């Protein structure tokens, strides 16, 4: 657990992580807690000249909050999404790490395409994808999604023993992680020949995403980007086939502020990295999603990597 004042930065941790943290972070004072975290925080709070302390209410259970409150003298003030909003604007180093994670992800997609063959299962294809990412990155940002045929209609479906057949869709959603920073990219492609219907839907999703990215700039509402996509889908008669929000921020978490949906109050700012991911899904038939990470710059949206 981290505690920051205007003068010092503390990390309270167990002995298991002491050596690792000290080796990675030299600007933080590490306080080792062998027994009760609440007791140790209470001791730390008593030693500091602070009256109030904000905490991330959406990351703390009520049970733990009660225990901390009993031991911690400063008044606890809930601060919902405060840290997340600060984190939403990336510096150059963070952007470069996300870019690197994106590059590895795209390389993994190309590796997977070469590893695919008729009869391979979704699970086997997922293992091929993950094996490449683990060779080049620190890990995966989330459990990858690899779906075949009619199962591509599941926006967040889990890979199964379903085998790849000739002439069907493949949907891959994955991300590498580099030094804690995530990537999130989706590609839909064909295995063999597919009906013209799917080519038309793919081109629609691709062009809608491209149009939305052109509108990305500082000070635009996140909900406006979502509206642009929904309006174009409605014109094509597919608005109800879009089953999720337009996108989200990417950084230390694969889903973080800002969120781009119809109810969002977020305003895009320079330095944010967001996904744009229009999808069109037909239950029991298949679906298409195109997802890229986009950096908000003073000149507009720039696809990463």
UniProtKB/TrEMBL annotation:
<dbReference type="GO" id="GO:0004177">
    <property type="term" value="F:aminopeptidase activity"/>
</dbReference>
<feature type="domain" description="Creatinase N-terminal">
    <location>
        <begin position="2"/>
        <end position="89"/>
    </location>
</feature>
<feature type="domain" description="Peptidase M24">
    <location>
        <begin position="97"/>
        <end position="298"/>
    </location>
</feature>
<dbReference type="GO" id="GO:0046872">
    <property type="term" value="F:metal ion binding"/>
</dbReference>
<dbReference type="Pfam" id="PF00557">
    <property type="entry name" value="Peptidase_M24"/>
</dbReference>
<dbReference type="InterPro" id="IPR036005">
    <property type="entry name" value="Creatinase/aminopeptidase-like"/>
</dbReference>
<protein>
    <recommendedName>
        <fullName>Aminopeptidase P family protein</fullName>
    </recommendedName>
</protein>
<dbReference type="InterPro" id="IPR000994">
    <property type="entry name" value="Pept_M24"/>
</dbReference>
<keyword id="KW-0378">Hydrolase</keyword>
<dbReference type="Pfam" id="PF01321">
    <property type="entry name" value="Creatinase_N"/>
</dbReference>
<dbReference type="InterPro" id="IPR050659">
    <property type="entry name" value="Peptidase_M24B"/>
</dbReference>
<dbReference type="InterPro" id="IPR001131">
    <property type="entry name" value="Peptidase_M24B_aminopep-P_CS"/>
</dbReference>
<keyword id="KW-0479">Metal-binding</keyword>
<dbReference type="InterPro" id="IPR000587">
    <property type="entry name" value="Creatinase_N"/>
</dbReference>
<dbReference type="GO" id="GO:0008235">
    <property type="term" value="F:metalloexopeptidase activity"/>
</dbReference>
<dbReference type="InterPro" id="IPR029149">
    <property type="entry name" value="Creatin/AminoP/Spt16_N"/>
</dbReference>
<dbReference type="InterPro" id="IPR001714">
    <property type="entry name" value="Pept_M24_MAP"/>
</dbReference>
